[in-house]
């Protein structure tokens, strides 16, 4: 059944127009990803207000290309210049940049591209067969089992009609636009942060990408086990809300480092190809299954996924179990586009990766000034409101303060997107139980979910404690 639906999805994704949007999304995502400080989150945020004139299928196919392309671009900069665009590419800098400094930059780029292809393709296969089952399971669960927290309460209460946190400002009666918050936090706030540090950071010169842009049989044999292990580590993290692909990439890198210590001649620290192959495969595997979790469960596990959830809502669509029934053409065309995007990105990055570094020749003031202009134009074009521009500036300053003090942005974005949904589900649950809060813990499935959440929290706290202990030592 899934195969038949996927074939129908390919028929939709491979139309000339949709294929053009896939390629355009991959190019834009990669181009943004290779610029220091940027990434797929900012690319999707900037494109969000500019794509509402498109057909929903075309828009989300392009978003998927941007999402995956941003990861490819992040890795390119992590390898060439030791400046990852996002935290998910940090693990790739350790051995990847050493390979570049050792004159093996093109081999490192090929390792990253193939690893990302393997991880992304494997995740796409898993999603095709797993997402419909997840959707059926979620549809069978009664509404009282959906519980969440959010901060998106500004505006008129849709149930009671009461004003909430508007301070009497009429422009806030409809609440704060998700698009405004997204662009402000992830794009304009990042511009302010970069502008505040642009004179402090030393100028980094691009590495020379000499040599062959492919792997020898010996190098491929060396990297293959790491690609497989990284993919296996990354797959389950697409449905675990730990902030994105940062955790699995570091786990994959740490595993390869421990295995390397058992060798007679350890290679880590000198440009070990396995230290790059594993995190690249893990990061893209996580991204692929994260898209499946978004479509089947409506669960965003990263900032970029939260932005895409906001885009679905702007189109009047709600990701989750009912989406497979209400918009099957969109869902299966989007899933098919994952496979197409992986092939397109492999074609783009293997022979042309070194050309992306040329974008760094754009002077930083022009680059970030242009981004700021697009932020303002996008928000104003959507609302035609000067008040929204002022709100964009105010929220961007909040985003800048959060970046300045190393506060994570993903929880804020996820809370803003899921807040109204969580509030509605909580009210429905309490209304159906005559105000009895016990309905929230009345079934084994809720205890299972709370248990998984508790385990994730405990592991996170344990990692933080160990990190602080090692720093004190």
UniProtKB/TrEMBL annotation:
One family from Pfam that matches here is TctA
DUF112 domain segment(s) = 19-140, 147-414
Keywords of the record, alphabetical order, are:
Membrane, Transmembrane, Transmembrane helix
Spans through the membrane: 21-48, 60-80, 108-131, 176-195, 293-312, 332-352, 359-380, 386-402, 409-426, 438-461
Quote the InterPro entries the UniProt record gives.
Answer: DUF112_TM
Any keyword Transmembrane helix? yes
Would the keyword Signal turn up in this protein's UniProt record?
no
The protein depicted here goes by the name DUF112 domain-containing protein
**What is this organism's lineage?**
Bacteria, Bacillati, Actinomycetota, Actinomycetes, Micrococcales
């Amino acid at each position: 059944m899934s195969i038949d639906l996927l074939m129908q999805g390919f028929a939709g994704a491979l139309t000339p127009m949709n294929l053009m949007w896939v390629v355009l999304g991959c190019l834009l995502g990669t181009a943004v990803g290779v610029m220091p400080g940027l990434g797929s989150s900012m690319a999707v945020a900037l494109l969000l207000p500019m794509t509402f004139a498109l057909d929903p299928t075309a828009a989300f196919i392009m978003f998927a290309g941007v999402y995956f392309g941003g990861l490819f671009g992040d890795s390119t900069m992590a390898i060439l210049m030791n400046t990852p665009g996002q935290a998910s590419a940090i693990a790739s800098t350790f051995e990847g940049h050493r390979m570049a400094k050792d004159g093996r930059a093109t081999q490192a780029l090929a390792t990253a591209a193939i690893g990302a292809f393997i991880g992304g393709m494997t995740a796409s296969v898993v999603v095709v067969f797993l997402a419909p089952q997840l959707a059926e399971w979620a549809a069978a669960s009664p509404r009282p089992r959906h519980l969440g927290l959010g901060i998106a309460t500004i505006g008129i209460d849709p149930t009671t009609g009461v004003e909430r946190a508007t301070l009497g400002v009429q422009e806030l009666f409809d609440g704060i636009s998700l698009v405004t918050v997204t662009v402000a936090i992830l794009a304009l706030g990042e511009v302010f942060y970069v502008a505040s540090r642009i004179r402090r950071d030393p100028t980094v010169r691009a590495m020379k990408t000499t040599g062959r842009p492919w792997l020898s049989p010996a190098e491929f044999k060396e990297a293959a086990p790491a690609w497989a292990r990284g993919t296996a580590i990354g797959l389950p993290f697409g449905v675990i809300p730990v902030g994105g692909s940062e955790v699995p990439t570091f786990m994959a890198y740490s595993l390869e480092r421990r295995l390397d210590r058992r060798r007679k001649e350890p290679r880590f620290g000198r440009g070990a190809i396995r230290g790059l192959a594993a995190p690249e495969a893990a990061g893209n595997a996580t991204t692929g299954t994260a898209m499946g979790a978004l479509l089947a469960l409506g669960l965003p596990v990263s900032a970029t996924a939260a932005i895409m959830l906001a885009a679905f809502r702007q189109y009047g669509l709600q990701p989750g179990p009912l989406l497979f029934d209400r918009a099957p053409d969109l869902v299966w065309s989007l899933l098919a586009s994952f496979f197409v995007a992986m092939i397109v990105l492999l074609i783009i990055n293997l022979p042309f990766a070194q050309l992306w570094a040329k974008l760094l020749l754009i002077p930083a003031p022009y680059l970030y000034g242009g981004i700021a202009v697009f932020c303002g134009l996008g928000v104003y074009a959507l609302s035609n409101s000067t008040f929204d521009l002022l709100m964009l500036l105010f929220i961007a300053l909040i985003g800048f303060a959060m970046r300045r003090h190393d506060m994570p942005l993903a929880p804020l974005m996820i809370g803003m997107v899921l807040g109204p949904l969580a509030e509605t589900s909580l009210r429905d649950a309490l209304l159906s139980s005559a105000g009895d809060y016990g309905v929230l813990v009345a079934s084994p499935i809720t205890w299972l979910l709370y248990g998984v959440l508790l385990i994730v929290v405990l592991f996170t706290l344990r990692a933080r404690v160990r990190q602080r202990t090692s720093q004190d030592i």
